[in-house]
Amino acid sequence: MHRADGLPRTVLCFLDRDGYLGNLECVYYDDPLPEWPDPRDCAVLLHDSERHIEAVLLPKGALVRPHQSGDRWRSVEMHEDLGFCATTWSGYRECFASDGTQVTRVFTQ
């Protein structure tokens, strides 16, 4: 999620072959800072074995999956209000509130 100054950052979690933490990296898109984000302010993107986004765990604890069972998201855009929008492989743009409630779902292809 965004820092207090509004600039984006990303925390990357790399797992080894056995699923254990191999490396944790915080990426800043401007000058590096000696700080880590509060985990309560982070969304976690969960990928399947083919690296497609299959779910998002929001900071408030809601686990959100694409509306259509078996679908995956191609891209996810987090919002400052802790919600997000995502585009599915089947061509829908889905937006969710910070509590995981679906706000909109529009076919785009």
Structural overview:
By secondary structure, this protein is mainly beta. It has one domain (about 10-105). The protein contains no helices and 9 strands. A hairpin with a 5-residue loop joins strand 4 (about 55) and strand 5. The model has no long low-confidence stretch (mean pLDDT about 90).
Question: Could you give a quick summary of the protein structure above?
Answer:
With 109 residues, this protein is an all-beta fold. The protein has no helices and nine strands.
Task: List descriptors.
3-stranded antiparallel beta sheet, 4-stranded antiparallel beta sheet, 0% helix, single chain, mainly beta, 109 residues, 44% strand
Detail the topology: elements first, then pairings.
Layout: E1 9-15, E2 21-28, E3 44-47, E4 53-57, E5 63-64, E6 73-78, E7 84-88, E8 92-96, E9 102-107
Antiparallel strand pairs: 1-2, 3-4, 4-5, 6-7, 7-8, 8-9
Largest sheet at a glance?
4 strands, antiparallel
H/E order of the elements?
EEEEEEEEE
> Helicity level, as a percent range?
under 10%
What is the strand tally? 9
Enumerate the spans where pLDDT stays under 50 for 5 or more consecutive residues. none
Q: Going across the major beta sheet, what is the strand order? A: 6-7-8-9
Rg on CA atoms, Å: 15 Å
Briefly note the structural class of the backbone: mainly beta
**How many structural units, i.e. domains?**
1
Number of helices: 0
